[in-house]
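Support request from a user on the community tier.

User writes: "When I paste my structure tokens into the form, the page sometimes reloads and wipes my input. The last time it worked, I copied everything first. Here is what I submitted, just in case something in the input itself triggers the reload:"
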């Protein structure tokens, strides 16, 4: 097999698998080293990007790859699949997902403490949709079940890993606040405290 055929084989395997695949499994199937397989995957990814293909190749963490449709074409794909029947996520579900994604693994009681309301039904629905999963038990009294987000969550939100989540706070704004506080004289700082 030449490189063009190997890339074609990768494309076929990723398409058929429809879930993230470990690079080692792809390398074994092609009888290539991990480094050679990674190079071919990166070439395929680049080709999709350059051609503005309807397909995109996502990399999850250091060693898992998945073929997906490009988010730009999501609306058209939804029309053909008629996914309008699937209810969109509620604001409560999005809140629970955010709490879990930024703090995982977390218990149900932690989620409820952050949100201030009972989240049992929301957690159950997210488990059913496959966006979160049980991640063992926490070393806390009562050994509560811990939850974490799944690869499906990453795929749905177009993330390669949790490191791709947007920052919780604007770091630049935090730095500017610190700098302005340091520039104030003691009298100015006291005056500002009085007005607050």
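"...and here is what came back when it finally went through:"
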């Amino acid at each position: 097999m030449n490189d063009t055929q190997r890339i074609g084989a990768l494309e076929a395997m990723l398409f058929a698998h429809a879930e993230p695949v470990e690079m080692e499994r792809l390398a074994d199937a092609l009888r290539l080293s991990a480094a050679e397989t990674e190079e071919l995957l990166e070439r395929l990814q680049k080709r999709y990007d350059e051609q503005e293909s309807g397909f995109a190749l996502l990399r999850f963490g250091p060693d898992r790859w998945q073929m997906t449709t490009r988010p730009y074409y999501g609306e058209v794909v939804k029309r053909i699949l008629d996914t309008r029947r699937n209810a969109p996520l509620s604001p409560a579900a999005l809140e629970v997902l955010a709490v879990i994604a930024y703090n995982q693994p977390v218990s149900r009681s932690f989620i409820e403490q952050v949100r201030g309301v009972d989240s049992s039904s929301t957690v159950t629905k997210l488990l059913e949709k496959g966006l979160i999963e049980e991640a063992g038990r926490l070393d806390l009294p009562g050994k509560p079940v811990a939850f974490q987000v799944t690869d499906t969550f990453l795929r749905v939100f177009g993330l390669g890993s949790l490191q791709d989540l947007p920052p919780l706070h604007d770091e630049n704004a935090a730095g500017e606040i610190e700098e302005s506080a340091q520039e104030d004289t003691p009298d100015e700082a006291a005056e500002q405290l009085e007005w607050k």
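Agent notes: The reload is a front-end session timeout and is unrelated to the input. Residues 87-164 form a domain with the Arc Repressor Mutant, subunit A fold (CATH 1.10.10.10). The chain has two domains: 3-73, 87-164. Escalated to web team.
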